[in-house]
């Protein structure tokens, strides 16, 4: 589905704050509120908007990025789906380069991060992991 400049601007506004009222979005875009509703509905129906979500940060919470190498014959998408099933996994991305998968994990502490790493390493097809702890987030 082709996107026009209004669609792209609407997506940027929603990414900044998915809770922005339709009336404010309409004013920013210079269109009616009903036109905003129709555009958002179309973007959801076509799968461009996959979900509306929030970003949060809890005190004492640890966030980690885990890079994962896989090995055939287990396909990378199968490994990715298994990683995504682990509670605390926020997102999974398939990559090009030395590592095949990047997982973002949230936990109450480093001990929990270690448990998640151990669990990822037991998934068939995973041959190694490399973990980085996030120190600060800039959004």
Report on this structure.
This protein has 139 residues and is of the alpha+beta class. The chain folds into two domains: 5-45, Orthogonal Bundle (Arc Repressor Mutant, subunit A), CATH 1.10.10.10; 62-133, 2-Layer Sandwich (Alpha-Beta Plaits), CATH 3.30.70. The protein is 39% helix and 22% strand. The protein has five helices and four strands. It has a four-stranded antiparallel β-sheet, with helices on one face. A hairpin with a 6-residue loop joins β2 (89-94) and β3 (101-107). α2 crosses α3. It is elongated, with a radius of gyration of 19 Å. The two termini are 29 Å apart. The model has no long low-confidence stretch (mean pLDDT 94).
Helical segment count: 5
What separation lies between the terminal Cα atoms? 29 Å
- Would you state the CATH class of the largest domain? Alpha Beta
Low-confidence stretches: none
Count up the domains: 2
Q: Share of helix among residues?
A: 25-40%
How are the strands ordered across the major sheet?
2-3-1-4
Largest sheet: 4 strands, antiparallel
Q: Can you say what the CATH homologous superfamily of the largest domain is?
A: Lrp/AsnC effector binding domain/regulation of amino acid metabolism (RAM) domain
What number is the mean pLDDT?
94
The CATH architecture assignment of the largest domain turns out to be 2-Layer Sandwich
Overall SS class? alpha+beta
């Amino acid at each position: 589905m082709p996107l026009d400049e209004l669609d792209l601007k609407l997506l940027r506004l929603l990414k900044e704050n998915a809770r922005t009222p339709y009336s404010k979005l309409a004013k920013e875009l210079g269109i009616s509120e009903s036109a905003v509703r129709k555009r958002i509905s179309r973007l959801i129906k076509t799968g461009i908007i996959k979900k509306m979500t929030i970003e949060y940060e809890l005190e004492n919470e640890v966030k980690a990025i885990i890079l994962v190498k896989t090995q055939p014959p287990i396909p990378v998408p199968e490994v990715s789906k298994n990683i995504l099933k682990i509670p605390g996994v926020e997102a999974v991305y398939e990559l090009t380069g030395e590592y095949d998968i990047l997982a973002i994990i949230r936990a109450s502490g480093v001990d929990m991060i270690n448990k998640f790493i151990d669990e990822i390493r037991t998934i068939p097809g995973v041959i190694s992991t490399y973990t980085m702890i996030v120190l600060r987030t800039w959004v």
